[in-house]
Design goal:
By secondary structure, this protein is α/β, with parallel strands linked by helices. It is 47% helix and 18% strand. A five-stranded mixed β-barrel has the order 1-2-3-5-4. The chain has a five-stranded parallel β-sheet with strand order 7-6-8-9-10, sandwiched between helices. Strands 11-12-13 form a three-stranded antiparallel β-sheet, with no helix packed on it. A hairpin with a 4-residue loop joins strand 4 and strand 5. The radius of gyration is 54 Å and the shape is elongated. The termini are far apart.
Length: 458
């Protein structure tokens, strides 16, 4: 680190422009923070057409802008999204166009399995306290097994690798697959049932196997139910879950832990080629260590190379500035267009609502329509009333008793004015009133013939 960076930049004797200040500040930041690892959460993720990736890395108290250029972004296999917890590696720099402090990234990987790790350690301590990991309780593998049970998924490379090893090293051994799911919510109860079934199958040894994966993928083998099923198994059992670097609770409880499913098969199928295979394993480990060393030295060389301030960095700065201006221009155009369209729509609505010609035309059209309808309606109303009156008069005439009297009939009324309809309603000597078509007669009943009397036709 520089002891006095301001003295190196001669700031006590030189007046800088803003561009010069930002440029020298960028050089100073990149010199002091050539490579750092930072962990945080992604927000404001942006992917412009250039292929570069920009986002903000934040925690609960602070945030910093990050830029991942196209050549490095192509190496990222993780699907990036807002809210994703990541660990990034890069150098601290400055975007001179805006004077923004930022990280120029060359590596990105997911982070955030801390909760699972804590649960793993808690269950590990609990089972260890109960003695499930004690070496005294471990059973010895048979030297020459004849029947092997394999608790694993029927699909995938694991079962094929185990069969291939036994075919090569011990083809006489009978293998039996006890199928089960090895990932997901349904995996835990299925694995427990498969272990219990295999333990009753009379096998010389069992292999509990699964291929590699993330901590979440392998988590069912860290469940307490599977650990207790492995501990209760009376048949010697080999745990081969994941790759060599993967460790599960089932590995601690099992009688033997194998780094891979193939290695588990080799433990139960020894041959005269063990020495050569061990040498090959040591060679592989040596190559791995050499690759790791070369990777570290390569990373160190990359850091030194980046500090050489290659002209490509200037091109990256300009590319980032172009991307930033492009995004700002597109956002500005969209805002202006939306605002203009909204204002035009409002003015058009107001003009259409307030224009007097439209109102007058509507009123004139309505007046003409009413003027045409009024005479017709009046005439129709008069005709309807006239027809109704004629009908009522005709009906009244038909039912009027006066019309009947005018044809020569009369109505007999008693003292109370009630009409006489039957002879039985009268008494001899009773006085009645006869109403004629014109005038009335006072009559007296001489005799009321209760029997029908035949009258001659007039």
């Amino acid at each position: 680190m520089l002891n006095d960076p301001f003295q190196r930049l001669n700031l006590d004797r030189e007046v800088l422009t803003v561009s010069q200040l930002n440029g020298r500040a960028r050089l100073l930041l990149e010199d002091v923070f050539a490579q750092v690892w930072v962990e945080g959460e992604i927000s404001n993720l942006a992917r412009p057409a250039s292929g570069h990736i920009y986002f903000t890395l934040k925690d609960k108290n602070a945030q910093v802008r990050c830029a991942l250029f196209r050549q490095n972004a192509a190496r990222v296999r993780q699907a990036l999204r807002d809210g994703l917890a990541v660990k990034v590696r890069g150098k601290v720099s400055l975007f001179e166009g805006r004077g923004d402090y930022q990280l120029i990234l060359d590596s990105l990987e997911p982070a955030g399995d801390g909760a699972l790790r804590l649960a793993f350690e808690a269950l590990k301590e609990k089972l260890a306290a109960e003695g499930l990991f004690d070496a005294a309780s471990k059973r010895t593998l048979p030297a020459h097994p004849q029947r092997i049970g394999i608790v694993s998924s029927p699909t995938g490379a694991v079962i094929r690798d185990i069969i291939s090893v036994f075919r090569r090293r011990a083809p006489h051994v009978a293998l039996t697959l006890v199928p089960t799911a090895v990932q997901g919510r349904e995996a835990t109860p299925q694995i427990v049932r498969a272990i219990e079934l295999a333990d009753r199958g009379g096998f010389d040894a069992l292999i509990l196997a699964r291929g590699g994966g993330s901590l979440e993928d392998l988590w069912c083998f860290n469940e307490e139910a599977i650990a207790r099923a492995v501990a209760a198994c009376q048949t010697p059992i080999v745990s081969a879950v994941g790759h060599e670097t993967d460790v599960s609770i089932a590995d601690f409880v099992a009688d033997v832990r194998a780094p891979t499913p193939s290695a588990a098969a080799e433990l139960l199928a020894p041959s005269s080629t063990d020495v050569r295979q061990r040498l090959a394993s040591l060679r592989q480990r040596l190559l791995l260590r050499m690759r790791e060393h070369l990777h570290r030295e390569g990373s160190r060389l990359d850091g030194l190379t980046r500090r050489l301030r290659h002209p490509g960095e200037r091109l990256q700065q300009q590319a980032q500035r172009i991307d930033d201006l492009e995004q700002r221009l597109l956002r500005g155009i969209d805002r202006r267009l939306c605002a203009g369209q909204e204002r035009l729509a409002r003015l058009d609505t107001r003009l259409g609502a307030q224009h007097p010609g439209r109102t007058l035309a509507l009123l004139r059209q309505r007046l003409e329509h009413l003027s045409q309808r009024m005479p017709r309606a009046m005439q129709e109303r008069l005709n309807s009333r006239r027809q109704q009156l004629q009908g009522l008069a005709q009906t009244l005439h038909i039912v009027s008793p006066l019309a009947t009297l005018s044809r020569g009939y009369s109505i007999l009324l008693d003292e109370r004015g009630q009409a006489i309809r039957r002879a039985s309603q009268t008494q001899p000597g009773q006085r009645l009133k006869a109403r004629l078509g014109e005038g009335e007669l006072e009559v007296r009943v001489e005799d009321n013939h209760l029997e029908p009397v035949t009258l001659p036709l007039l």
